[in-house]
Amino acid sequence: MNGQWLIRFILALGLGLAAVSIGWIVLYRVVPPPGTPLMLIRAIGGSGIDKDWQGLGAISDTLPQAVIASEDSLFCSHAGFDWESMRQAWQGNMAGARLRGGSTISMQTAKNAWLWQDRTYVRKGMEAWFTLWMELIWPKNRIMEVYLNIIEWGDGIYGAEAAARAFFGKSAANLTRREAALMAAVLPNPLRWSPDKPTRYISGRAGVIQQRMSIVERDGLDQCVK
């Protein structure tokens, strides 16, 4: 009897948590996230929080192009998961190559909006759960809008508007192709690299991203965010 009660309790708890998480996703479809777990963690560590939410229409088209070119060229066509990239990342990691994540923009948005930053299987499983429901509930342009507003771009700097003003002294609406490419180039490690003081590696990476941006524009790979 006690065993049956425990099973019912666990099932009820699981269903309750699932309902809360889905409700949270529905809420963020229309309400800007007021903050993220990473912002809280960094703030506890002594960093400030510089962010300024802007709708996607108030951000230069060059920036979505740049992050699609850099982070996730199939963003507009996949359902949240790029299975081939994930397979390649898994094989590379198992072979002892440099650690890769294989995360799409959708997966990164889910991680940043709701979760912490480690690489445990529990966190990855929760990331997949949030990504699945987010893709079902949000349109692609909302995913991109939230991504560009909550992603970390430097110590205490979150989102495109705060980053554009901090690094280039202008609004995100006025970013050039080169500036957008530089911002995308530092995303893998924004605490190490800075768009306004690019290393030789970041400058070269930004050049490659600019070339890919032309392909994104030519092939309409950013149509879902226009």
Automatic annotation (TrEMBL):
One GO location term (cellular component): peptidoglycan-based cell wall
Protein origin, superkingdom: Bacteria
InterPro entries recorded: Glyco_trans_51, Lysozyme-like_dom_sf, PBP_transglycosylase, Pep_trsgly
Residue ranges of every copy of the Glycosyl transferase family domain listed in the record: 48-213
Record field: transmembrane: 6-31
Enzyme Commission designation: 2.4.99.28
Catalytic activity of the protein: [GlcNAc-(1->4)-Mur2Ac(oyl-L-Ala-gamma-D-Glu-L-Lys-D-Ala-D-Ala)](n)-di-trans,octa-cis-undecaprenyl diphosphate + beta-D-GlcNAc-(1->4)-Mur2Ac(oyl-L-Ala-gamma-D-Glu-L-Lys-D-Ala-D-Ala)-di-trans,octa-cis-undecaprenyl diphosphate = [GlcNAc-(1->4)-Mur2Ac(oyl-L-Ala-gamma-D-Glu-L-Lys-D-Ala-D-Ala)](n+1)-di-trans,octa-cis-undecaprenyl diphosphate + di-trans,octa-cis-undecaprenyl diphosphate + H(+)
SUPFAM superfamilies documented for this protein: Lysozyme-like (SSF53955)
Pathway noted in the entry: Cell wall biogenesis; peptidoglycan biosynthesis
The entry's keywords: Cell inner membrane, Cell membrane, Cell shape, Cell wall biogenesis/degradation, Glycosyltransferase, Membrane, Peptidoglycan synthesis, Transferase, Transmembrane, Transmembrane helix
Membrane topology: Single-pass membrane protein
GO molecular function: pentosyltransferase activity; peptidoglycan glycosyltransferase activity
Location within or outside the cell: Cell inner membrane
Pfam families tied to this protein: Transgly
Single biological process term from Gene Ontology: regulation of cell shape
UniProt similarity note: Belongs to the glycosyltransferase 51 family.
Function description: Peptidoglycan polymerase that catalyzes glycan chain elongation from lipid-linked precursors.
Protein name from the UniProt record: Biosynthetic peptidoglycan transglycosylase
Species classification: Bacteria, Pseudomonadati, Pseudomonadota, Alphaproteobacteria, Rhodospirillales
